[in-house]
Every structure is written in C-alpha cells, then in structure tokens.
Automatic annotation (TrEMBL):
Gene3D superfamilies: 3'5'-cyclic nucleotide phosphodiesterase, catalytic domain. Zn(2+) 2 binds at residue 143. AMP binds at residues 101-105, 143, 252, 305. This is PDEase domain-containing protein. The active site is at residue 101. It comes from Blepharisma stoltei. GO terms for molecular function: 3',5'-cyclic-nucleotide phosphodiesterase activity; metal ion binding. Zn(2+) 1 binds at residues 105, 142-143, 252. Residues 1-347 form the PDEase domain. The lineage of its organism: Eukaryota, Sar, Alveolata, Ciliophora, Postciliodesmatophora.
Length: 347
C-alpha cells in the first residue's frame, strides 16, 4: 500500500471529500492463468457456518475467504481470476478503519448472505445466478468509503455528498456509486465478459439493492418483501428485487443473530461509533443525535441493545423466517441474545 496515497486520502476526508483509492499496480496475486484458483473445501465448509467470526482472521485471510464465496460464479460468468482478486483487494482497501463500518463488517455481511444461500439451494428458488452474483457483490460493497457517521450527520454538516445526492440516502448513494466506479475500472471490471445487456442489468440490480440498506427504508423493505412473498413469482423481476433488498437489509443489521459473544463485539463497536459521532456533533455545533448518546454506562448499553432488537431486528428477521424458514436458527439466536441482555439488565 502507498502510505502517501492513503495519507492524502485521509486528508481529503477531513476536507469533506470522500474519493476511492484504486490500486492499479497490484499484480502479486496468488492465482493467475498459470496457477488457477482451486477452492479449499475446508474454507468452503467454514463459510457455511452461521457464526463465522471475521475478527479471528487477518484482512488477507478474509480476502481469500471472499474469493471462495464467489468460487462457483467465476466459471459461470467467465470471470478473470486476477480481476476478481484485484476487485476484492481494492474494495477491502476502500473501507475506512471505523469502529464498526469497516472491512470486517463488510465481510460479515457478504458471508452471512452466502451462508444463508448455502442453506436455501443458493437462492435458486428465489433468484437467478445473475441476481445471486449481484447480491453478493452488493453485500461486499454496500458500505464502501463509509465515514463512520449517519446520513443525518452528513446532511446537518452540509457535507458535499449530501449536496450531491440532495439529502436523499446520502451514504447509500455514495456506497453504490463507489462500487459501480470500481466495477467499471480497467483491472476491476469483472463483468467485462458479459454482454452489454447483462452488464447493464447487473448495474440495475446493484444500485437499488444497496440503496435498500438505508434504515429510512426499513419499513418499506419489509412491507414490499411480505407482499411479494405472499404471491411470489420468480418470473417477476420486481419480486426478485424485493427479495434481494430484504436479504441485504437483514444481513446488514444481522449482528444480533450471532452467538452472544460475537454479537456483543459488534454491538460495542457500533456504540463506540455512535459515541464518536455525538462528540463530533457537539464539537462542530451541529444538532446532537441524543438517541446515539449511549456512552459507557452498562445499563444504557443493555437498554440500547434490547430496544434495538425489539423495535427493529426481531420483527425484521421474524418476517424473513416466515417466508424463508431455513433462517429459523437466526431468529432463535436473536431470542437467546435478547434473554441474555435481559438477564444482564437484572444484575
């Protein structure tokens, strides 16, 4: 990595500009034409696990796991393995070192999408292969260049991105645009062997799927999914898009579906990020997001977690489970974690 380039990028962030870094000269990849990629089936088996812990691995190891997530799609879509590795690396390096919205979160989301898919026949009854591919790519890139603050902060601080996107799904628009930017760069253009029509279709899938991760769309994503699944028709492209939206939105906020110790690590990280935003808002004289002010008070942390599960997470995953019963273990984990927080609350 070019430390000078990263320094300039970080300086640009402080100047209210978020722009991607592109590592165009990275060529030292493990796999190429002379050394074809062969999946390690131990890794393939690990990636099926519900409670895969990203924090137990280095970034380099996780990039290798991500390549394994896409292993069956490389041949299906004639993907150049060097371009795939370069894209995986470039996206990894374009996640900032925020407490929560970082590469480890991105990995966890794409792995969760993959794990669920492995238990529902790779989504074959719900999506076609192009859509599964787009869903996985969207999952990996869904928080690219995230600055560690909310849309409200971006809008209230008059950030250039808020101006660019007219205060509408500011961060989600930025994540989607940044991902599309990479996918169109020479060296990362993994869709280059697809027809023009298929390339256009992939783009049309990726953008709305990432936009659906805006929490402001939480209710509409659930309502569209429920209505869709009551009369699901795989031939209907709107139905398939609604399924993609629900899967990514659920996985994006799926931390409480992990076993309690892993779920707690993610919980404390997002609370840390919220606390940092409140401090920034106070320092800059912006409207303060009091609902994010959790601090280090263990009682407030417990109440925050139980409230989040009750208001958002449990209803979301319960609905997903109604229509995709193979996700029952995720709902069971949420219920168990809720009980764990409640028991802690009584201490």
């Amino acid at each position: 990595m070019d430390d000078g380039l990263r320094k300039r990028w970080l300086e640009a962030i402080h100047n209210d500009i978020l722009s991607p870094i592109y590592f165009s000269n990275v060529e030292n990849f493990p796999y190429n034409e002379n050394r074809p990629f062969t999946p390690d089936y131990t890794k393939v088996a690990e990636l099926r696990l519900k409670d895969f812990s990203a924090f137990s691995h280095t970034k380099a190891e996780l990039r290798e796991y991500i390549l394994h997530i896409f292993y069956d799609l490389l041949d299906t879509f004639h993907i150049d393995v060097c371009k795939m590795q370069r894209l995986i690396y470039a996206l990894c390096e374009n996640y900032q070192d925020n407490p929560f919205h970082n590469f480890f979160h991105a990995f966890s989301v794409v792995q969760m999408i993959h794990s669920i898919g492995e238990h529902v026949n790779k989504y074959q009854d719900l999506l076609d292969n192009r859509e599964r591919f787009a869903l996985l790519i969207s999952s990996y890139g869904h928080d690219l260049n995230h600055p560690g603050v909310t849309n409200a902060f971006m809008i209230n601080s008059r950030h250039q991105l808020a101006i660019r996107y007219n205060d509408i799904s500011v961060l989600e628009n930025h994540h989607a645009a940044t991902l599309i930017h990479f996918l169109e760069l020479s060296g990362c253009d993994i869709f280059c062997n697809l027809s023009y029509e298929d390339q256009t279709y992939m783009r049309r899938l990726i953008i709305p799927t990432i936009l659906a991760t805006d929490m402001a769309k939480h209710k509409s994503v659930m309502e569209n999914f429920d209505r869709t699944m009551r009369e699901f028709n795989k031939e209907n492209p709107v139905h398939r898009q609604n399924v993609m939206d629900m899967l990514l939105h659920s996985s994006d906020v799926g931390n409480p579906t992990y076993k309690f110790d892993l779920a707690t690590v993610f919980s404390l990280r997002i609370i840390q990020e919220f606390n940092q935003q409140v401090i920034q808002e106070e320092q800059r004289g912006l409207p303060v997001s009091e609902f994010l002010r959790v601090g280090n008070d263990i009682k407030k942390i417990k109440q925050n977690q139980m409230g989040f599960i009750d208001a958002f997470i449990y209803p979301l995953w319960k609905l997903l489970c109604v229509h995709i019963p193979q996700t029952q273990e995720y709902v069971d984990a949420i219920e168990q974690n809720r009980k764990m927080w409640e028991e802690l609350e009584k201490l």
